[in-house]
Amino acid sequence: MTKRLKVIQWATGNVGGESLKAVLMHPQLELVGLRVYSSDKNGIDAGQLCGMPDTGIRATTDSQKIIDTEADCVVYMPRHASIDEVCALLSSGKNVISTAFLFYAESLPAEEREKLRKACIQGKSSVHGTGIHPGFVGMVLPLALSGMSRTIEEIHIQEKADWTYYASPRITFDNMRFGYPKEEATLAANAFARFNAGIFEEQIWMLAAALGLELDEVCTEQDLIVTPTAYDVPVGRVEANTVCAQGYQWRGRVGDDHPIAIDALWTLGGEYPAHWDKPREGWTITVEGEPSFRTHFLPAASFRRRDLAIEEHVHASDIATAMQAVNSIPALCLAETGLRGTFELNQTYAGIGFRR
User: Which of 26, 92, 235, 293 is most deeply buried (CB count within 10 A of its CB)?
Assistant: First the structure.
């Protein structure tokens, strides 16, 4: 692709700020717009918001101004995602790539799916969701490993993560509801938990579609653990008798079998639950078949430097999430119109490449 693609960055949180910086660095991309939510950021040059030189592009809180801006792609990364916002962008002729949702939009309820399809047709545009997980770990890596398989019996993805040093108390406490009474953190009580479960389910539907498996359903189970004693973490306090660990299981069912499985084992300080599996920290992907494969994935700020703080290693996941989206922009802009899954895009690779 020879021409520079015009890109709009939507939101500048932990991940969005890294995405903005990457768009400005990427040789194939040109920033043409920036949507923010804070009045303190409104009117500020995009470069100042991510530690880069001034760009001449000013941030705006006006969504309609962004919709009216001509662009090839919008990198959509708000804290609270909206299908209506995405449809407005798609209808205006912009491709949309998101780390917030739409990881496999074909698996959405019919009403939402058709709304997105109509918007794509109207704007001759495409939409894709990606990131680190959901995203790369649950969709790209399993498909890459499957390329060495003759037949597949089972795909199993395990995530083990300690949220102690994640620098967002709003997500950790307000959304995830660590530090809340157990009854307030259940799937039934917490709308964010239900939304979050849904985007992990999408990965299972996508893998099934890509690998020719017809599922009966995708099942979700939740295991909430409470702490008997109170303790502090960098972003807040976990009181006694509140949630300190959350385990999730997503299973793609075919009859009595579950050939695609995803586990999330999330803790916030405290004791690791004794009855949980004990994979390595990070992500473990197992493909059982002929032959079988296993790989372990762990992002870090550096594997050479030993003087980095744990917070920097944790933030590496934010960078990885942003880069999977930014590096997928050229592939999405080349894709056919519509709801695009990972297996329907060209290979994603580092567009910025080696540091010079």
Answer: 26
Helix/strand/coil for 44: coil
Q: Are strands 29-35 and 73-76 parallel, antiparallel or unpaired?
A: unpaired
d(CA 54, CA 312): 25
Per-residue pLDDT of 214-253, as tens digits, reads 999 999 999 999 999 999 999 899 999 999 999 999 999 9
For each of the domains in the chain, give its residue range(s) and CATH number, in order of start.
5-132+319-344 (3.40.50.720), 136-298 (no CATH)
pLDDT digits (tens, 9 = 90+) for 245-303: 999 999 999 999 999 999 999 999 988 999 999 999 999 999 999 999 999 999 999 99
Cα distances (angstroms) measured from residue 236 to each of 165, 168, 184, 246, 295: 11, 10, 18, 17, 34
Query: pTM of the predicted model, to two decimals?
Result: 0.93
Beta-carbon count within 10 A of 49 CB? 21
Q: What does the alpha-carbon distance between residue 34 and residue 77 come to, in Å, rounded to a whole number?
A: 11
Beta bridge partners of 6: 30
